[in-house]
Amino acid sequence: MDGKWFDTWRTRWARLKRAWELGIAGLILVTGIVLLLVSIPELPTMLWGTLTGDGDAASALIVSVGAIAVCVLQWRWRTAFYPQLRRDAAAARAEEHPQEPSA
What we know:
The chain has 103 residues and is mostly helical. It has a domain at 32-85. The protein has four helices and no strands.
């Protein structure tokens, strides 16, 4: 059995997984940005409602801020969440700072 064929498909599969993981991470980030843009016009109403004791406004404010934070943090820490991106980041670090051989 030819190992070259298997290595080629393994490389293609890794690239496909990496593209999928970057795509999902980017999609979630864009969702957070859209949520932020949609929340900006409603922010004064949500804040005023929260300060005057409206439970629904407080709930909407907390959920919106939490959702935006989750979207941004998953992008910021995407190498921790997605295994293929973690491998790529480790390889990039190894290229930047090669280990000196021990004597």
